[in-house]
Amino acid sequence: MITIGQELLQELILEAAVTRRFLERIPFDKLDYKPTEKSETLGRLAVHVAEIIAWWSSVAETDRLDFIDYKPKEVICTEELLEYFDELLLAAKISLSKVEDKEFEREWSMAHGEDVLFTLPKKQVVRLFCMNHLVHHRAQLGVYFRLLDIKVPSTYGPSIDDENVILINRFT
Hints:
By secondary structure, the chain is mainly α. The chain contains five helices and three strands, in the order H-H-H-E-H-E-E-H.
C-alpha cells in the first residue's frame, strides 16, 4: 500500500522537474531585477523557489518551522543554485519516503520567534503551503522571465517558447 508520504513524493518529483527547468534559466546578471518596486528581486525569488523544497522535510520531521534566525542562502551561479535545490530535494525525498501516515495528522506551525504565523494539520500544510506556495512563486518566475524576454519553460503543457510548438489559429 502506498503511504501518504510516497504519494506526496510522486507529486513533488513531478513539480521538482518543472521547477528545476525554471531555475536553470535564472540570469545571474539580472539578479537585482524587480518588475515593480513592491516586487522581490529575481535573485531572492529564485533562491526562495529553491528553498521551498526544504519545507517538505520540515513538515515530515518536525512540528514547527521558525524563521527567527533565518538568512537566505546566497548563490553566485546557476550551478550553485541547482546544487542547493538538488540537495534539498534529496532530503525531501528521503523524509517523505519514510514518514508514517499518522504523522500527517499532527499539527505543524510556522513561526517567527514567539509569533505563530499559522498552525495546521501537516497534511494540509504540504498541500496548501508547500506545494501551492512552490507553484505560486514558480509562476512569478515565469512572469519575470517573460518581462526579461527569457524563454519560459513548459510547465503543464507546452510553452509558446518551446521549440516545435505548432499553433493553430482557431479563428480563421
